[in-house]
Amino acid sequence: MNQTLPxxxxxAMVKAQPNKAYLHQPINRKLQVFTWAQVDDMAKRLANxxxxxxxxxxDRVGILSKNCAEWFISDIxxxxxxxxxxxxxxxxxxxxxxxxxxxxxxxxxxVGKLDNFIEADAGIAPQIPRIxxxxxxxxxxxxxxxxxxxxxxxxxxxxxVNDTFSISYTSGSTGNPKGVVLSYGNLAASSSTAAKSMGVxxxxxxMSYLPLAHITERSLIETVSFYSGCKVFxxxxxxxxxxxxKTAQPHLFISVPRLxxxxxxxxxxxxxxxxxxxxxxxxxxxxxxxxxxxxxxxFMRTRSFGSGTAPISASTLAWYERIGMPISEGWGxxxxxxxxxxxxxxxxxxxxxxxxxxxxxxxxxDENQEILxxxxxxxxxxxxxxxxxxxxxxxxxxxxxxxGSITANGExxxxxxxxxxxxxxxxxxxxxxxxxxxxxxxxxIEQVCVFGQGRKQPIALVVLSQAADAKSISQNxxxxxxxxxxxxxxHQRLDNIIVLNEEWTIESGLLTPTMKIKRADIELKFSxxxxxxxxxxxxxx
Length: 541
Prior knowledge:
alpha/beta, Rossmann fold, five-stranded mixed β-sheet, five-stranded parallel β-sheet, GMP Synthetase, Chain A, domain 3, single chain, 28 strands
């Protein structure tokens, strides 16, 4: 495990390869490229500008923007000035933005690429100065290009292992997000270990498009680039995503289950699955078809694929493996500084597991089936929430809230969240996640939430994929219901599938910024179904 801290590691890369291309930012379909030396120079100028603004070492500085080169540069500048970064999800509403800024006591906020200017503008109090990235964004008191006219900082901060690297807020699936205090030592352990376990090489291309406010992207892409010296490519917009992937030609590509499902739907819209599977079985034709699919998505050079932040069905993983895109799974939390357990490199026998613990942590399962974790990558405290911190640890072990099991090969499987369990009228507890995974093996089902507190049997809310042919698939859903129930214990079996007519989105408040379902909000919105005696097996809203 590399004990060099992130900022020192970045500086070492600048010294070793100053003129190598590092950050690649598409602007108006032209690629703007920054070398390691250029990024270092800009960060030093910004760091000095922050100090000239009157900020001091230890002050908190927010970053509210979609991913871009300036996000990385700002983050490095904050480190150089000895300050503490506070990432804010660019999709956050005004209440969340205001809460994070106020709770962390941010002194200023970098603002950049955003979809909703109104929420961002309303969420940042007037007395908080704003530094604007060079993109269309909300009004600010300081502009990026102006601050870059500052002289470079002569002496950058020499961080210690236990110094605070960042206050990273959870995605807030229930209630207000918690500020997780992460140290430089936490990120050094997590990122250096991840770079090694994922096999990231100096000449590799990585893509940064999942929210940098989430610790996964920050520790697996941004700081991993410090430890590997690889190139990083950004996305200009959602509309240009595939073209940007083709430009980047990534060697490692990490996504979330929701996006893997959408990629699958796009492929199946062009070729029906039965035909695809038949062609894949023909030796030469199968290889050509798989190659064409990968080329169409921009994955011709990709040797490793990853999925995390939420469960992905084993059938989806098997489907991708058949087209030459074997996906490894990883697990981690904000509190564990990112990746803590994975089945990198891909092993077919590990499908459906999250693999084994990383070298920087220890894991075990307690008597309640909860996964406990400890190690140098595990956070030190929740910001200004001592009781929450105290309640989260037992003898140095952090309570993750995830329920798990261990296979005969010593690999972990996630079987749900402790807090997500609900009790039916029969007095039996049901964990919804495993049932939801079974339902999503049907490619027509894109989103699902199983609930049933107080009902005699659970029910499932589903949103169909865009490829699904609406009500003509009722019989298909009934068959899925029977197949799923045949694999469940009696108290877990579903009474009904309720098909909703609108997808759950971040904007509607039913998905977190990392595309996890907000279970409590979904259950509250559709609580009427808890009270109804539903007759039909498949019900259309």
